[in-house]
Amino acid sequence: MVLGRSMFRASRGNAPHSGEIVSARAVVKTYATGKETFQALKGVDFTVHAGEMVAVMGPSGSGKTTLLNVLSGLDTIDSGQIWLEGKDLATMSDKARTAYRAQRMGFIFQVYNLLPVLSAVENVELPLLVSGVSQKEARRRSMAALERVGLDGWAAHRPAELSGGQRQRVTIARALVNNPAIVWADEPTGALDSKTANEIMGLLHELNQRDGLTSVIVTHDPAIGARTDRIVRMRDGEIVTRIDPILLTEPNLLATASGS
Ligand SMILES: Nc1ncnc2c1ncn2[C@@H]1O[C@H](COP(=O)(O)OP(=O)(O)OP(=O)(O)O)[C@@H](O)[C@H]1O
Ligand SMILES: [Mg+2]
Q: 16 CA distance to ligand 2 centroid (A)?
């Protein structure tokens, strides 16, 4: 398994910068509402290595979504530094940031954000068409992504003709279609019943184990957290504990995670 992961990363040319996909130091994020300001992140340090599957847990309002938004470059920070595959986010233009997000990041949210008038495959290929990939190539890659999530027979169906779990598989296929360096998921199973949630989590786990997919998953569900490599706990805008069960039991992974 360890060998498989490192080979996959090497073949994608994805592991420069000691395999750090995202790294954050002393990140502070303040929201201003009227005259009040609120510090949603109070100096957060956080690093994700290639091939890791990380859970972010913590009470409502602790800053989980804020952390995802700033680490993925969707929102700005007040102070601190963020590097994406070794590149300082602050030095990237808006255009470069947007392009990086489109090409190197995938997003999965609790609500599906699928366009109702488009079929499953059309929803998946939309980001490719927007970034200039040809119709034919976009269709080929989108069908492959649907296959990866077990939906190859459902390509022509519109979201309304799919179950909640199938819709979430479509959004996962869409997140994967660009072969991203990292996938961000904010409560991806929050709207699903527990059996379907378990299936979706199983799929994300399989993509991590089989393909080395790097992901950060915000969840309230301890059972989901337990299926990741590492749980990062947040409280009041701070990371309070890091639990690395796999790194403790499989020292070899440490070497792989640090890129050696
Ligand atoms: N756009 C905003 N303007 C003002 N305050 C905000 C904004 N977004 C978030 N906050 C505040 O920042 C804090 C952290 O919010 P965040 O959404 O990151 O929490 P969360 O951990 O994701 O919570 P949940 O589990 O409920 O999704 C909260 O107190 C919230 O009210
Ligand atoms: Mg949230």
A: 30
CB of 77 within 8 A of CB of 45? no
Can you give the pTM of this predicted structure? 0.85
Residue with tokens 């996959």: 8
Neighbouring residues of the ion ligand 2, judged by CB less than 5 Å: 64-65
Q: How far is the CA of 19 from the centre of ligand 1 (A)?
A: 30
Nearest-CA residue for atom 17 of ligand 1: 65
In this structure, which ligand is nearest to the CA of 59?
1
**Please, which residues bridge with residue 234 across strands?**
239
Could you tell me the domains of the chain?
A: 2-257 (3.40.50.300)
Tokens of 10: 């090497």
Q: Name the residue with tokens 């299926």.
A: 227
Task: Kindly report the average pLDDT of the chain as a whole number.
Answer: 86
Whether the pLDDT of residue 2 is over 50: the answer is no
Amino acid at 241: T
Return the pLDDT at 5: 42
